[in-house]
């Protein structure tokens, strides 16, 4: 196994790459990034379906420390975002520290050595500090539909797109109408001979103000000092203002509901079809989606919206609850991800043999500031519980977490500590506060969403402004932690607590 590395990071998406860069800049040289796939990029590596793009503007969906002034569009496509991540990994010399094809199956805290023993497909790796950068949307979910495995044609999840299958002129079924589907459906409508879209719950779709950047605009961003910063700040302020509707005053969502009604009315001429595309829950309760061509796609004569529930899959098609069978050549499952499981299926065992999945089994996932978990020393989560957003860029949240983790690592180094661990009462107080705030948000207005556990507890989203999260994570509060050295029992760190 060898001597422990100073830091081991699991995952090489935005979280893993950005964390590695910031740790290197803080003087941490001995770090390793473990990546199960053959390339970096996380969700932007996996999701290569037609039309894949971001719904946050490019100037904000990028690292503040590595500005890109030549984005091709206001909302960047998948391949451009992936290229940006490869650029960052090369420029900041993270690439040589990534071990590709190394899947992490679990990790166990070694009390005697004050280190993590990380089990991988290539053996055991030891780490003084372990950072999970797995994200919330990496484990694809296939629906439990009778006969799903009996289908004789091509069938795949949207995040595992089979580019070897030519869908031009074919009969295609898309199951699901979430964030991926609203990008896929217009593309398939242009290619397929017949397209059936199976909708369980209608999404709110508003216009997407996307366009290519003009050559002169790129020139200004590149040459004029402060131009890029102004653009980024303007977009941030515009998006941040939406938090008022999501987390403070849900009635303000009526302003966005007007945009939805406008998009639906302009995109769909048939009144009966408009009604079937109209959601039956408050706007914002589920993720709001952006598209200018999703609704118009249903106006094409070869595109059908199916609102009857899928009853079963047969060898040659899809049968709905009304008994109608539709023969298809291919099925695309745009059915989302296991968003509330976080580190699963990895088995993480902390102090005293405590397993993380068991610790989270009853109340759902919980972590102080979404980053640290009591009973799991030197373990830090990126994009953990309570850190997802409905209104702004997750990159902003990740950069807040980078600073917090670096602060913890530097504090341990200065004090000569071997481990720190958030106090259980601090984590519990934070969790209670989150649940209290979440009760008043639009996400708790009566719908089921991927933000929730099976029992209806919201564990994904941050119930506030992103600048409030940045302030809360500006530096680790010493009084929030237990601390120790090898061979010593835990003792409380001196200093003030933060709420």
TrEMBL record:
<feature type="compositionally biased region" description="Basic and acidic residues">
    <location>
        <begin position="482"/>
        <end position="499"/>
    </location>
</feature>
<dbReference type="InterPro" id="IPR036188">
    <property type="entry name" value="FAD/NAD-bd_sf"/>
</dbReference>
<dbReference type="Pfam" id="PF13738">
    <property type="entry name" value="Pyr_redox_3"/>
</dbReference>
<protein>
    <submittedName>
        <fullName>NAD(P)/FAD-dependent oxidoreductase</fullName>
    </submittedName>
</protein>
<dbReference type="InterPro" id="IPR051209">
    <property type="entry name" value="FAD-bind_Monooxygenase_sf"/>
</dbReference>
<feature type="region of interest" description="Disordered">
    <location>
        <begin position="478"/>
        <end position="499"/>
    </location>
</feature>
